[in-house]
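re the bet — no i am not wrong, look at it urself. input seq straight from the record:
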Amino acid sequence: MTGTRNHRTSLTVTKLVMVSMTLALAFSLGLLYSLAMPAPALADRDDDYADGVEAYNRGNYRVANQYFLDAMKEGNSNAIVMLYLAHSYAAQGQYKLALPVYRNIRDSFRGTAEAAQAASCVLRLENPATFAAQKGQSQTATFYNRVKPFPAKKGHAAVSKATIAAVQKAIMGMPRAIYQMLDTAQVAVCVAPSAQDKLAANSKLQEAAILNGKEITVFENLMVPGKGTKGSTAKPFPPAEIKEAFLKQVGNAIEQCSGGLARDPDFHAAYKLDMRDMPPATEETMPFLAPPANHAEQEVCAYIIDSIAGGSSQLATTVSQNFPKTKAWLINKLRLQN
């Protein structure tokens, strides 16, 4: 192997980022490099690509990534090399590095199989919910497609398409990492006409959404008891309230499906630091902090995830702003920075 192979181990993280962000230039100059290169160098770049594919197929994505970078440095900017490079980034969870490579392939090699695959990967990474919707996958395949209506009872009106669409819109607005956690955990969403349709006939539940196991149930209406002998009257929850209630349960679902994040000692340490630095009287704006506050840490965790997922309720915003250390820990723990 030439000196290039020895130089490989000295590449810094900064250089990796620079290589990824300048792939368009590498592609443009690739032909010039190949024309000027002696035969041994041309052979070396092909060896790097072959070694990269072998490492990739073994699941050694970090090593494969380095081989593909070296092949490109030596002038091999073919679409397949770039596609493997992007895949090796994505396999390591380095989505911010994978995306510009996928976009470059999509734009520079239009009409090729590699460009079509890259375009699909761009959509999958940028908005997995949209990807699932456009693919029209089976009803149980993805989180987006696990939103289903619950049949009405007692002559109540069926759930409207508008409410289901509102829930799906909230899903499509989630960060990719949040969506994928819900998808992987097999969380489902049920949209019911009211609590009296899904739960007990005399349910007095006031919330627009609840979590039961891995199922989030969203209620379209609040059933208001009638006076005297009159039956209950359906009072629709405002769409904004439905969205906020749903995202709060998304926070609860991720907290639970991730093994009880609020019970992690490091979460507890960050939470205690934030509580120590809490401005006077701020606790009064977060009722779950009032003694005995038995579930305060779970609530803080859920509201922070709620905020990250797109929630903008006053409570979610207040918690997110007043627990910066806890929020930073969650972002790092759940790899939400990608």
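see?? The radius of gyration is 26 Å. told u. also The first helix runs from residue 3 to 7. so pay up
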